[in-house]
Every structure is written in C-alpha cells, then in structure tokens.
Design brief:
499 residues; alpha/beta; 6-stranded mixed β-sheet; binds 1,4-dihydronicotinamide adenine dinucleotide; binds magnesium ion
Length: 499
C-alpha cells in the first residue's frame, strides 16, 4: 500500500558487522475491546457513527471507535456543565488535588500498559512512550495536583476562579501527553472538560477513562469524545463551552480563531513550528550530533518543536554533516514495539503523503538528499531518516513544517546571520543553540523569536516550564504557572474574560 521512497533501503546498516536480535515488548498487557463508546457523564454512551482505528506499523485494525456528532458533543458539554455547576467547582481545592494525585499514581502504576498501547496505536518507539510520554504525563498530573489548593498564592490578590467548561482538541503526535497537558491544569483550576483525541490515536485517551473510573473522579468532570475534525468543529461551535484549548495545525488553529472572534470564548492555540537548531564552531560536535538527532528524529519528527532546520557555522559544516550521516546510518527504523527501535512508523497514510510530497519538492528545488541504507517493513507507513544539504532559505523544505524525519541543513558565518536566518520563519515555537560560550547563548536567546530556547540540549520538557509559541506557532502557554492562567478568571477581568 505504502510507497516507499525511491532511495536505497537494503537493511539497517550494521557497520560493525553485527545485527540486533529482535527485542519485542509484549502486547499481552493491553486488552482491547472490539468497540468503544464515548465517555460522557462517567459512563459509556453509544456514538451515532463509528470508524476503525488501526496500527500504523502494520495497518492492522485495532478497534471500532465513535465518531461523535454535534448531538453527542452537546450531551458531553451538558454533562461537563452539570458537573461544573454541581460538585466540582465548589469542591474544596485540596479534594480536587486528591483526584489529580490519584490519576498521576494510576498512570505510573499502569505505565507499561499505556506505553504499549500508545506505540501500538500511534507508531512511536516503545522506548519513547515508556521513557518520555508516560513519565511526563504522570509528572504533569503530579505537578498540577500540587497547585490545586495553592491558587491564591500562585496569583496573589487576584481571586482566581475557574472558567467553566473547557473544550480541548489534541493531536496524534503525543496522544496521552497532550491529554495530560490539557486536563491536568484545567482540573487543578476547577474546570470541567470535554476532550477530543485525534482521529488516528484515540485508544490511550479511551484507556484513560478507566483510570478516571479507578480514581473515582465525579461523573462529568472529564468527558472524552472521539472523532475527526467534524467532532472538533462541533466542540468549537458549542455554545456551552467557555474555553477552547487546541493543539494541531496552523491551518485549523486559524480557522478556530476566526470562528471564536467576538464570542467571548477564551482560546489558546499551540500550532506548528520550524525550529532552528544552531550549531556554532566552538560546540562539541559529537554532543551536538546527538542533539540534532534527538531534535529531528525523535518521534519520527512528528514534533511541533522539532529542530527541523539545522543552521551550522560554515567552517564546521563538513565535519558535522559527516558525523551526522554516520550517526544516521546507525538509527534503527522499524517495529515500534521493539525495544531497540529508534524511529517507528509514520502516524498515518496522510502524514506519509505530506512528507513524501515535501521531500520531492526539496529534490526538485535542488537540495541534496541523503538517506542511509535502511530496510523498511513491507506493510505500514514508513519513512527513512533523511538529511538535505545545500538548502536555500527559499526552498519549501526550509519554510514549511514537514512533521517527519527530515532535516534541512543551512549554513551561516556570523552570529548575526544565524539569528536572521533562524528568525526568518512564520513560526516561533522553539530553537536550539550549541556553543561553549555562555555569553553567546544569552545573546542568542534574547533575540530568538521562539517560545523555548534550548542551550546545548534539545527537546527537553518539564511540567514546571511554560511551553508555547510566537507568531503562527500560536499563543498562550502550557506548563508551569503560566499554564494555569488560561483556565482561570480573575477579578480584574471583564465579565467575559480576556478571550
Ligand atoms: P489537524 O490540525 O487537522 O488535527 C489536529 C486536531 O484537530 C485533531 O484532533 C483533529 O481531529 C482536529 N481538527 C481537525 N479539523 C478541525 C476543525 N475544523 N475544528 C476543530 N478541530 C479540528 O492536523 P493534521 O491534519 O492531523 O496534521 C496536519 C499538519 O498539522 C501536520 O502535518 C503538522 O504539520 C501539523 N500538526 C501540528 C501539530 C502540533 O503539535 N503543533 C500536531 C498535529 C499536526
Ligand atoms: Mg487536518
């Protein structure tokens, strides 16, 4: 089914002459239902329509899930409203915290089950779901649990109060982690939620409903409705929703912003990115290579803050790119459930097509492509880790978000030129700087128009640290104290909040 790119793919290169034996994580810990309903008011309701969710690594069907219609969404919003007006917003904050702590502990207890399911449904390597997604998701609940009864101290003299019902729409690249980013601060602040996972990755959100049951969360505080963009649009358009939190494409984010203008509904948007990862000639090259690899091949490059543009100082381009190519050839691409896999499956046929189209444009526009020899599985959606050199600022692969394992290399001579090229983008989510000089790190960080600037590291996340963008990367912050604010209203706000 899947077109594999027309570049060499004869086997994971085994440069030292040995192969890795398969080390599969067992699927037995996950028990899937044949079909799932919508989780509304603490119970499962029948959706009006259903569709089949698959494993992108094998195209194997996994389960039937609901395609919630506008009526279903309305029922969910009603349940959230009732829970908000009823027990939840009036609950003692320390009691709210208790539920969040319970959820965090349950996620830790069931981490392996969630990690396997996340890799199965989304295609990401098990070592990432196990070591990144799950620990961070639990950490977000722990972190925001701690704030639930301290809001008065977090925002002194501002009388923080919850906003009401939050509609939350999340993408497929970090399904459970994005759920945690959205639900934890909303609940800590005393809101109730209706959350929609992405259509390709609904299963971890549906398993999360069982965690809510175990935690004995009052019914209606969290409602999960599955479905595609139509379901998302129904949430955005529902009159009973007080706030929308969206993570996804810039295109849909803009459409949502247009629709909400003038309604008084609050909005935060976390959209795309085209981050510059900037390497100066005094950087430790081997360390930088690891950071570059982590920056763009982590999670198949399905990362909004991915370091997709490598800006390298001209004098070190040759040795750096050589080291990078050698490192690429050692990445193992394949079965997401194999513990040795570095790069898993592309999340969907549609995403694979987008990557292939942009890579073809890079070749047509004259950039030079490198892909290591690599054997890809027969079925499923795959893309070989790719590097483009000789990329010009005007190329589409330097401008557009590819959201795949594809790196574009550009060069610069001076810090001023690096800065100008880095900021020459419609996005502004993240950036990386590699140099031994602390003063240069600070000089760059102050001038880079990006929400997060990593220094001598990349793709590091922590619940205490705010995350979010400038320009077309969106607005509002998630994580840290900043991440609570969009879920609170304050005395100084007008009646409708600040939009
Ligand atoms: P998308 O923006 O269409 O999907 C993200 C979420 O929004 C999903 O839950 C989807 O069902 C929902 N959605 C779609 N249309 C909607 C609408 N009209 N109203 C409300 N909700 C809607 O993103 P898609 O199509 O999956 O990916 C396209 C590109 O977007 C990717 O190639 C990537 O460049 C970018 N993207 C960025 C993400 C990020 O983390 N910032 C995450 C996912 C995609
Ligand atoms: Mg879309």
């Amino acid at each position: 089914m899947t077109e594999v790119p027309a570049h060499p793919r004869p086997g994971h290169l085994a440069p030292l002459g040995f192969e890795y034996a398969a080390a599969p994580e067992s699927r037995a810990i996950v028990s899937l239902e044949d079909g799932y309903g919508l989780y509304v008011g603490g119970r499962w309701i029948e959706p009006s329509e259903t569709y089949t969710t698959i494993s992108p690594a094998s195209e194997e069907p996994l389960a039937r899930v609901g395609q919630a219609g506008a009526q279903d969404v309305d029922t969910a919003v009603g349940a959230a409203r009732e829970a908000f007006e009823g027990a939840w917003s009036a609950l003692r904050p320390a009691e709210r915290a208790k539920y969040l702590f319970r959820i965090a502990r349950l996620l830790q207890e069931r981490a392996r089950e969630f990690a396997v399911l996340e890799s199965l449904n989304g295609g990401k390597p098990i070592k990432e779901s196990r070591d990144v997604d799950l620990p961070l998701a639990a950490a977000h609940f722990f972190y925001y649990a701690g704030w639930a009864d301290k809001l008065e101290y977090a925002f002194p003299n501002r009388s923080p109060r919850p906003v009401g019902v939050a509609g939350q729409i999340i993408p497929w690249n970090f399904p459970l982690l994005m759920l945690a980013w959205k639900i934890a601060p909303a609940l800590a602040a005393g809101n109730t939620v209706v959350l929609k996972p992405a259509e390709t990755t609904p299963l971890s959100a549906l398993l999360f409903c069982d965690v809510l049951r175990q935690a004995e969360l009052p019914p209606g505080v969290v409602n999960i409705v599955t479905g595609d963009g139509r379901t998302g649009a129904a949430i955005v358009g529902n009159e009973g929703v007080d706030k929308i939190a969206f993570t996804g494409s810039t295109e849909v984010g803009k459409a949502i912003q247009r629709e909400l203008a003038g309604t008084g509904k609050r909005l935060t948007l976390e959209l795309g990115g085209k981050a510059a990862n900037i390497v100066f000639d005094d950087a430790p090259l081997d360390q930088a290579v690891e950071g570059i690899v982590n920056g763009i091949y982590f999670n198949q490059g399905h990362v909004c803050c991915a370091g997709s543009r490598l800006l390298v100082q001209e004098s070190i381009q040759q040795p750096l790119v050589e080291k990078l190519k050698r490192r690429l050839a050692t990445l193992r691409v394949g079965d997401p459930l194999d513990k040795n896999t570095d790069v898993g499956a592309i999340n969907s046929a549609a995403q694979l097509q987008k990557i292939e189209e942009l890579v073809a444009s890079g070749e047509q526009e004259g950039a030079e492509i490198y892909q290591p020899p690599c054997r890809l599985p027969e079925r499923g959606y795959w893309f070989v880790p790719t590097v483009f050199t000789g990329v010009a600022q005007s190329h589409r692969i330097a401008q557009e978000e590819i959201f795949g394992p594809v790196l574009s290399v550009l060069t610069f001579r001076t810090p001023a030129e690096a800065l100008e090229k880095a900021n020459n983008t419609a996005y502004g989510l993240s950036a990386g700087v590699w140099t031994e000089k602390g003063s240069r790190i600070l000089w760059m960080a102050q001038r880079l128009r990006a929400g997060v600037v990593w220094a001598n590291t990349f793709n590091r996340f922590d619940p205490t640290s705010p995350f979010g963008g400038y320009k077309e990367s969106g607005f509002g912050r998630e994580g840290g104290l900043h991440g609570l604010e969009p879920y609170l209203r304050f005395d100084e706000d007008g009646a409708d909040g600040d939009g």
